[in-house]
Amino acid sequence: EALGVEELQIWTDVPGVYTTDPREVDSVLPIPHLSYAEAEALAAAGGKVIHPHTVFPARAVGIPIWVGSSLVPGATGTWITAEGPLTDNGVRALASAIHPVLWVGELNPAAPDEIRDKLLQRLIEKGGTLLHLSERRALVAFEERLSFSRDESRWLRACGDWREHQHARIVSLIGHSLAGNAQLGERLPQLSAGYGVIANYHEEDALAWRLV
């Protein structure tokens, strides 16, 4: 961004961005073109090719990003630009991440905001990463199990029903018009591949739908 470059090239060990991690799943397809927003959502969801902080400065000044493989230099690769392909076909990519400890809170809407905010701040001070927050639900990830003081335990109870889950996998479906996709909603149980789903939610802009 500071140098005003015309293009950013990322040479890695895979020839571009795929529909999911080719090291985990055999039946993957290359994605020739992503928007900045899609790439950021994919990176934040655990996609390993793009780091979450890579896209922001390029997006700020419109630098196109190309991702390719130094092992297969002639491959087409993936372009990341302001405008990705215009499509309403739903899911374009899938990413997953495993969190050693995940706290899922089904929030009580009647709880005072100041208690909820104080609790979330304390969880972040304890090393938590706030993954999702809405009126009804909060998800906070940790690297290890927690212990709570009496006040913290009281705040937990006052805010709603909180449950700890160990080694929780969050599967993120990245795409367009996910919130209004009735077919996708019906298929969510199948997409969980038989695993028990603790919660599912989508972002406000419906760019990502997550199964926990």
Give structural notes:
The chain has 212 residues and is α+β, with helices and mostly antiparallel strands. It has 5 helices and 12 strands. The chain has helices at 36-44, 55-61, 113-125, 150-159, 182-191; strands spanning 8-12, 17-18, 30-31, 33-35, 65-69, 78-81, 91-107, 129-133, 137-142, 160-175, 200-202, 208-211. The strands form 3 sheets. A 6-stranded antiparallel β-sheet has the order 8-9-7-10-12-11, with helices on both faces. It has a 4-stranded mixed β-sheet with strand order 1-5-6-4. It has a two-stranded antiparallel ribbon with strand order 2-3. Helix 3 crosses helix 4 (150-159). The protein is globular. The model has no long low-confidence stretch (mean pLDDT 83).
In short:
With about 210 residues, this protein is of the alpha+beta class.
How would you characterize the largest beta sheet? 6 strands, antiparallel
C-alpha termini separation: 36 Å
Helix and strand content put the structural class at: alpha+beta
Shape call? globular
**What is the count of β-strands?**
12
Q: How many helical stretches?
A: 5
Our estimate of the beta-strand percent is 25-35%
Q: pLDDT below 50 for ≥5 consecutive residues: which ranges?
A: none
- Average pLDDT: 83
Radius of gyration, CA atoms, in whole angstroms: 19 Å
Strand order of the largest sheet: 8-9-7-10-12-11
What percentage of residues falls in helices of 4 or more residues?
10-25%
